[in-house]
């Protein structure tokens, strides 16, 4: 039979012996059963290596956090950065206005400045003020040279915007850079020669 006992007509002695062997076999396997009862399940991947479930959960959590941050950033960008800045500015202005007293007088400088900065349609002075502001901003930016790359100098000074690109120097700067490069090359060769046998 499958249990290991004999089938058919069996004497009492044979039956008793078989039962004793079964009990002895169970006693021998009892410690294996106790050990396996408290053991943890081992999970393996397709290649048969053990999987570290705690580490996998941690990695999944980190990936989810990164994905949520990225989704939040994309949602922020989709909303419009300029609109968000404008909304923030409106909130700050509202808070500032709430802190002021309710009654406003003729000499309120904030109100005066706000009214002056508003652009009204059909204002004859608006074009004049825009041109004046553009001219002021233009004067602040100094013109820069934008032509072929100028020769190097020891102070890294960029040429003026009116430079015609002709090098009228006596060659001192080029000689100085050549000496520096030569000195550096000699030092490098000396170092390589000194450590050649190591």
Task: Describe, in plain words, how this protein is organized in 3D.
This protein is flat. It contains six helices and no strands. The chain starts with 11 loop residues before the first helix and ends with a helix. The protein has 198 residues and is mainly α.
Helix segment tally: 6
Q: Major beta sheet, specifics?
A: none
Beta-strand percentage? under 5%
SSE run: HHHHHH
Report the uncertain regions: none
Question: What is the strand tally?
Answer: 0
Task: Kindly name the structural category.
Answer: mainly alpha
* Computed CA radius of gyration, to the nearest angstrom: 44 Å
What portion of residues is helical? Answer: 55-70%
What is the mean pLDDT? Answer: 85
The best one-word shape is flat
End-to-end separation in angstroms reads 79 Å
